[in-house]
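Dear Dr. L.,

I hope this message finds you well. Following up on our conversation about the binding site, I have prepared a predicted three-dimensional model of the protein together with zinc ion. For your records, I am including the exact sequence and ligand specification that went into the calculation, followed by the structure tokens. Please feel free to forward this to your student if that is useful.
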Amino acid sequence: MKQIMVALFVLSFHFKGFSQTFLTAPIRSHIEFLASDELEGRGTASLGEIRAANYIASVFKNASLRPAGTDGSYFQPFEVSIGIEGNAHKLTARNVVGFLDNGANKTIVIGAHYDHLGKGFQGSSLSPNSKNQIHNGADDNASGTAGLLELARYFAGNSVTEKHNFLFIAFSGEELGLIGSKYFTEKPSIPLTSVACMINMDMIGRLNPDKGVIVSGWGTSSMWGKMIPDLAKKAKLKYTVDSAGVGASDHTSFYLKNIPVLQFFTGTHMDYHKVSDDIDKINFEGESQILSLIAGLLREVDKQSNDPDFLTAGNPHTGATTTDFKVTLGVMPDYSYSGKGLKIDGVSKARPGDKAGILAGDIIKKLAGKEIGTIYDYMEILGQHEKGEQVEAELLRGSETKIVKVTF
Ligand SMILES: [Zn+2]
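The resulting structure of the complex is given below.
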């Protein structure tokens, strides 16, 4: 009965003229491989990560994308320091980068991280007794990686030569703190000034049609709000928005380089960062709809005479709200830090944090006389201040405590 219903739905869908651009079968087969036990959870710098990278490169190659990693390969290696049984070890991880060269001046970057938690030795698992258990990460983020691969095949395989080039990047080191995307934006294979915008997909496999997709980065360009509502309506896709350009995924690294960004996310769930994030709960139809929305959006962006403008909207907050703060420090929190206070991973130039002398690596313990326990305390404090106000921040730099004056 269910099968017949699906068939009727698809037929009526075609009848109305919306042919399904993104088939569920290839999405499924990418996730099947990436989230299989064979890859052992794709831990950063593990053998499973390398095998996933090889798979991604082979799809890029079959789509005739040009290698855009290091030394003419698809791979961009970078060093990570991973704590294993209490000791820090330097290991090599890699981004996988493919370029669709349309001979244009400007390039649209499409990204998704492909690393996950491996066998639970690298921290951040929420499963009890997680050590030596495979974390397949079907939603986080085999789903986004599958989306990246299908968008690559779509733009490389269509009969249109767009007015932009496309750079497809599968990031590693995301779960350890956006390390791969940060590395890419420091050592980009194309000039960052030629990047028109960056579209990220992190966890797009669990669409609940009633709740819709969460679109973050909405406030980073005025173009998003002009285009997405109509496109979502056409795709019959509900959505909620989050204006912030800073969030817990790789779009943040690009936003901090003043590039308009969008991040697509189907929401958190009971299996998030647990060994139970498996393929059986993936909504392939839902992912296909989201990819149609993204492809439609990129076709529209490509047609415009101007590239998306960049707007500042960098307040770190999560959830599906349109709430925005009037002030921000312009700093990127280290999401992998679990101690007290707000650990700073990056500081945007010429923003209040930078002007106050806050550096990457500092831990903000107090702001405006209030203790910061978690990032949520920080957000709450920001919400209580106006532009132009001056407050004190208490920092821990190494073992030294410092007080600086911040002007919002
Ligand atoms: Zn993720």
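In brief: The first helix runs from residue 2 to 15.

With kind regards,
A. P.
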